[in-house]
Design a protein that fits this description.
186 residues, mainly alpha, 9 helices, 0% strand, elongated
Amino acid sequence: MNALTDGVVAIVLTIMVLELKFPEEPTMQAVLHILPLLAAYLLAFIYVAIYWNNHHHMMQSTRKVTGSVLWANHALLFCLTLFPLMIRWIDEAGPTAWPVASFGLVLVGASICYVLLERALIAAEGDGSSVKSAVGGRGKEWISFSGYLASVPLAFVSPFISIAIYVGIALLWLIPDRRFERRLQQ
């Protein structure tokens, strides 16, 4: 499962970078024209990296994988594979309401799937689940999910409000989830 996840993440990141374009001319104006695409790429790259880092830490503490775990992992991978599509749409339409709101929907889906994966791992391991003892209160997860959910309609008020929410939540998660590391050190 880890090898599949690593492979899919590598492909997602490769596809995203292939969506980038060189400036049409060697001028500052041409560079400025592609900055929104570069910013969208950077944000999507950071989100994929955050999910991979936390997935990696969580899977290090896992002792048992079931069919439910595999399907929950596939659901998370499905959401992550949508990031290149979002990059392409933002490139074509710019940071406008629909692509920015859709980016939020992908983040909503990924956050739901990550929690489903956590729950599937906990169910697979039972009462003594190392994942359960590591997860705890899920405060950051609820803040993130609420922010993503709010960002979808807010994109139609101003896409830049939603983008600010996405950046803020990414900053919240830049440091990998230490709960699993602490659990492994016990």
